[in-house]
Design brief:
CATH superfamily of the largest domain: Type I PLP-dependent aspartate aminotransferase-like (Major domain)
Number of domains: 2
Bound molecules: pyridoxal-5'-phosphate
Radius of gyration: 21 Å
CATH topology of the largest domain: Aspartate Aminotransferase, domain 2
Order of helices and strands: EEHHHHEHEHEEEHEHEEHEH
Distance between the termini: 14 Å
Shape: elongated
Number of strands: 11
């Protein structure tokens, strides 16, 4: 995967003109595998049932052939998202390098499935998970699935903007101490940063507070997938010490709806936490949708 400078481009209204770098996709392993597989002149005896668009003339006419020719399942050439090899594994490794992660998983069930997987990877039944009261509904379903018990932090209300603020490090510390007072240790802390309204929390300080007690930090970074790509954006969650960060590639970058990424920094830092791959693979749909990545 290579970076290409877009600075100084003279194209008017080019939204990429101010970005220092964009990816040159021709080196993307999954794109290359998808292209060569779509170009094969073969009869298809596999799903999806639209049979490269032939079975759905109305949609085919709407979008043209491209989407249908490349909407391919987990053929041997394309491998399997549930046990990544070849193009998927290479693509995930390149994404990890790009986003500064130790490991990255492509998700086809949105950030929703990444949040659920992260909670299930860090929390066992009855464990305490510290999280903001205005968490996304995916965190609530992650609590249900994992059996973890929420320890909520109430975000402050910003009356100027009429929205909820981020979470302060002192609020996280207070929540950890309240649990300690009743003989419990938080299994993980989940922070939404940026929030839906764009407010970021001080993750640098929050991760210091948590790591001093060996508590992993999950960041719902659904709306911050672009932070890595311009110095004027805030630092990413991983750059600020987060252990797991989930980003909606489809919401703020340029992939198709529902594609997200789960980034992990040193997954084995906490010894016991060796559960991520299988948990993560269970959350997306059975079928792999390669166009999403
Ligand atoms: C803060 C936050 N987290 C998670 C999500 C879920 O993202 P996705 O649609 O990729 O599952 C959203 C969706 O808007 C969100 O606003």
């Amino acid at each position: 995967m290579r970076f290409v400078s877009m600075q100084g481009t003279s194209e008017p209204n080019n939204v990429l003109a101010d970005l220092p770098v964009v990816l040159e996709t021709s080196s993307a392993p999954l794109v290359r595998a998808l292209k060569s597989t779509a170009e094969q002149d073969v009869a298809c005896f596999h799903f999806p049932g639209h049979n490269r668009g032939k079975a759905t003339p109305i949609l085919y006419n709407l979008t043209g052939p491209g989407a249908f020719l490349h909407d391919l399942p987990d053929l041997p050439e394309l491998h399997d998202l549930f046990s990544p090899k070849g193009a998927i594994l290479d693509g995930q490794a390149e994404a990890a390098k790009l986003f500064g992660a130790s490991e990255t998983w492509f998700l086809v069930g949105g950030t929703t499935c990444g949040i659920q997987a992260s909670i299930m990877a860090t929390c066992c039944p009855v464990d305490a998970l510290i999280l903001p009261r205005n968490d996304h509904i995916s965190a609530t379903s992650g609590l249900v699935w994992s059996g973890a018990v929420p320890k909520y932090i109430l975000p402050e209300y910003n009356s100027c903007w009429d929205i909820a603020a981020g979470i302060r490090p002192s609020q996280v510390e207070a929540a950890i101490k309240e649990l300690e007072e009743v003989g419990k240790t938080a299994a993980a802390v989940l922070i939404t940063s940026p929030t839906y309204h764009g407010l970021c929390s001080n993750l640098n300080e929050i991760t210091k507070v948590c790591h001093s007690r060996c508590i992993p930090v999950i960041v719902d970074e659904a709306h911050g997938a672009h932070f890595r790509f311009h110095p004027n954006f805030p630092s990413t969650a991983l750059e600020q010490g987060a252990d797991l960060a989930v980003q909606s590639t489809h919401e703020v970058l340029s992939s198709l709806t529902q594609s997200s990424m789960l980034h992990v920094w040193e997954p084995y830092r906490y010894g016991e936490n060796k559960k991520m791959p299988s948990k993560c693979c269970r959350a997306p749909a059975q079928a792999t949708y390669y166009l999403h990545h």
